């Protein structure tokens, strides 16, 4: 059902179209206000396919509209849905010289528009098919820059032919090395660098940037809003328990990748068809009587049929679905399917898998074959979302068949590697959720795969953090380990699973990063790990080997030494790893700090008072305590603390009639401040690590009078 805005746009388009057939002097009223109103409404709501096609017809044929009105329409051609290939062909057909062609400025505007809506074309291959027509128009100087941009967008290796290279070279010489032609020639050179020599592409060249990013952003907003309205309308008419008679996928319209619709032709008087179901009561009451449709492959896109298949599991039904999927996937493997069909197929399968929360073996076997030649880009996100529902199997087999080949296919870019880490996190979550959902875990369940997954992901995360250092990258890695910590602290799963320590380098790269949020998250993860280690060792002293415990205790000792004890990079304590710093390196650090001549020493520079990420919180804490004391009694203190807090500075402050604060009380108050500001991981770790009831940090404001605490390790 159309909105009021869409109906108004239809009426405005009809008025403008009618006026375009009448010369301006013969019109009773000016059409310009109507054009401006139409442009405003198109900007606000976008254009549905029918009014959009009418406007393209108007723009691509001679009319009596003035140039300003035509430009206003071209600049506001915002398609609300996917753009049909017919509309693209109309634009291509209007290009060039001729009495029946639109003015060149309008042709240039329409070509610019094609560049901006290219990603919304429902079948962008249509422009590839029109490549010869577009190429032969390069001699038309008035539209050459925009034409070269379109060609640059759609050029593939198959389009680069010797005669076209020669034609561009000749035309470039005739036009004095036109930048647009030079830019297009450089794209040709990327495909055949041995044919096009460097001299031919020297000089100024167009970079073919997006013509108007703000326009594209507005288009995205319009299309997202339209998709949401369409989804709400569909839900109002469906209620979740009716057959989807107009199967659509992600707003594209039409039945994707040849997926058949639900149609039952062999029903009897005593049976009920899915097409007759219109609510949940009727579905439940007739569950055993419902006749299966002719094509069970419709289960991939119809939620109601998916519910029926899940509730009435049957081997023959499953085999029918599997055979159809095998046939569809075989077209991809043999190269019969084009890129669009491949992407659509993966998105349909991803939608199905996400609904049933399981990746069937037929899909996983297909992916194992696909990874032998996949470019790692096409349908990347759907494939990674399919893999997150990989069943819990032997990890070595999964790595050999899927994860190893997948890692070789994917490009080594930050967005892709981030998606890969998210996939592994979701795999871990799904595996552990499945273990929690069963009453008793079967004896042959390969729970050790979860340990091996942690080891593998640790290497992936370390590589990503080393190659793309930054707060966002660290956060992505920590998300996986937060999932591990949450899993291992579950009392049902604790006896079944083991923790794999994160890579040592990863721990210290995050700890010495400039993000207090990530450091707090890291500390919180290690605190939960300690709880799990303690519980496991209480059940079985041999649950973990000495090497695992030594490594983990080294993390605890180093972080405690840095934050709490003022002994950063110390290697003399038991278990301490000196933050992986060699004695020679630590010595250079010491000399560097001494040479600064600021009465600083290296061991205290990463504690609560001096750490680059903690010093602001510690000073905020002290200032707040001083303000609180002054509110109670304005004469309580006559001197305020002026720098990083140390034991000696607190003593000097007390002698100068400043705030009286003990060192241990100060540290505990800083932890309270961190808790209040959302950085509770640090205090959680300190409470778990520091031995002794009185010396353990607390979120209470009560002071502790204990001496230097010792570490309570696993």
UniProtKB/TrEMBL annotation:
Biased composition (Low complexity): 700-714
Keyword Nucleus: yes
GO process terms (BP): CENP-A containing chromatin assembly; mitotic sister chromatid segregation
Keyword field contains Chaperone: no
Entries under InterPro entries matching the protein: CENP-I
GO cellular component terms attached to this protein's record: inner kinetochore; nucleus
Pfam families documented for this protein: CENP-I
Region (Disordered): 246-265, 692-714
UniProtKB keywords: Centromere, Chromosome, Nucleus
Protein localization: Chromosome, Centromere; Nucleus
Chief place where the protein resides: nucleus
Family according to the record: Belongs to the CENP-I/CTF3 family.
Annotated protein name in UniProt: Mis6-domain-containing protein
Organism: Sodiomyces alkalinus (strain CBS 110278 / VKM F-3762 / F11)
Taxonomic lineage from the root: Eukaryota, Fungi, Dikarya, Ascomycota, Pezizomycotina
């Amino acid at each position: 059902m159309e909105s009021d805005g869409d109906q108004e746009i239809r009426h405005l388009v009809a008025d403008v179209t009618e006026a375009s057939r009448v010369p301006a002097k013969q019109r009773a009223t000016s059409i310009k206000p109507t054009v401006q109103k139409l442009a405003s409404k198109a900007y606000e709501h976008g254009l549905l396919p029918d009014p959009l096609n009418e406007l393209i017809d108007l723009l691509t044929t001679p009319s009596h509209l003035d140039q300003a009105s035509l430009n206003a329409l071209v600049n506001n051609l915002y398609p609300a849905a996917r753009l049909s290939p017919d509309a693209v062909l109309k634009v291509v057909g209007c290009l060039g010289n001729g009495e029946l062609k639109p003015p060149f400025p309008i042709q240039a505007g329409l070509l610019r528009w094609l560049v901006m809506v290219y990603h919304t074309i429902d079948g962008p291959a249509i422009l590839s098919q029109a490549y010869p027509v577009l190429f032969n128009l390069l001699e038309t100087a008035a539209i050459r820059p925009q034409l070269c941009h379109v060609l640059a967008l759609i050029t593939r290796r198959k389009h680069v032919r010797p005669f076209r290279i020669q034609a561009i070279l000749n035309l470039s010489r005739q036009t004095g090395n036109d930048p647009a032609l030079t830019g297009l020639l450089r794209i040709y050179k990327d495909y055949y660098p041995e044919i096009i020599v460097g001299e031919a592409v020297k000089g100024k060249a167009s970079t073919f940037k997006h013509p108007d990013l703000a326009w594209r952003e507005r288009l995205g907003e319009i299309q997202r809003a339209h998709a949401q309205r369409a989804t709400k309308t569909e839900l109002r008419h469906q209620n979740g328990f009716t057959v989807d008679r107009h199967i659509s996928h992600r707003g594209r319209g039409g039945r994707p990748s040849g997926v058949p619709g639900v149609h039952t032709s062999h029903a009897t008087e005593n049976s009920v068809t899915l097409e007759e179901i219109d609510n949940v009561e009727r579905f439940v009451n007739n569950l055993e009587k419902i006749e299966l449709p002719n094509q069970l492959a419709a289960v991939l896109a119809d939620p109601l049929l998916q519910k029926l298949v899940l509730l009435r599991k049957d081997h023959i039904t499953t085999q029918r679905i599997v055979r159809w999927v095998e046939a569809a996937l075989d077209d991809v493997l043999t190269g019969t399917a084009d890129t669009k069909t491949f992407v659509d197929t993966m998105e349909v399968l991803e939608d199905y898998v996400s609904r049933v929360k399981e990746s069937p073996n037929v899909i996983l076997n297909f992916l194992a074959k696909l990874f032998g030649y996949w470019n790692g880009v096409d349908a990347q996100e759907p494939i990674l979302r399919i893999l997150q529902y990989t069943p819990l199997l032997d990890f070595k087999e999964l790595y050999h068949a899927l994860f190893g080949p997948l890692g070789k296919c994917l490009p080594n870019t930050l967005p892709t590697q981030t998606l890969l880490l998210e996939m592994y996190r979701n795999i871990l979550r799904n595996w552990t959720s499945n273990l929690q959902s069963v009453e008793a875990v079967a004896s042959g369940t390969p729970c050790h795969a979860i340990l091996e997954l942690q080891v593998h992901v640790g290497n992936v995360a370390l590589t990503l953090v080393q190659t793309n250092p930054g707060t966002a990258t660290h956060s992505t890695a920590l998300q996986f380990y937060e999932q591990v910590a949450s899993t291992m602290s579950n009392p049902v799963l604790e006896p079944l699973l083991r923790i794999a320590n994160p890579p040592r380098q990863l721990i210290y790269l995050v700890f010495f990063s400039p993000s207090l949020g990530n450091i707090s998250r890291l500390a919180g993860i290690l605190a939960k790990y300690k709880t799990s280690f303690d519980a496991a060792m209480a059940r079985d002293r041999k649950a973990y080997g000495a090497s695992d415990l030594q490594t983990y205790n080294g993390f605890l000792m180093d972080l405690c030494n840095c934050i709490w004890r003022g002994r950063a990079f110390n290697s003399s304590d038991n278990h301490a790893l000196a933050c992986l710093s060699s004695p020679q390196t630590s010595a250079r650090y010491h000399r560097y700090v001494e040479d600064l001549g600021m009465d600083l020493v290296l061991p205290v520079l990463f504690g609560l008072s001096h750490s680059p990420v903690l010093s602001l919180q510690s000073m905020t804490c002290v200032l707040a305590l001083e303000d609180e004391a002054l509110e109670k009694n304005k004469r309580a203190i006559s001197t305020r603390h002026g720098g990083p807090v140390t034991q000696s500075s607190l003593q000097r402050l007390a002698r100068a009639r400043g705030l009286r604060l003990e060192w241990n009380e100060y540290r505990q108050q800083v932890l309270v401040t961190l808790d209040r500001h959302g950085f509770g991981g640090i205090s959680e770790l300190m409470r778990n690590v520091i031995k002794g009831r009185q010396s353990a940090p607390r979120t209470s404001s009560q002071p502790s009078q204990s001496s230097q605490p010792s570490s309570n390790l696993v």
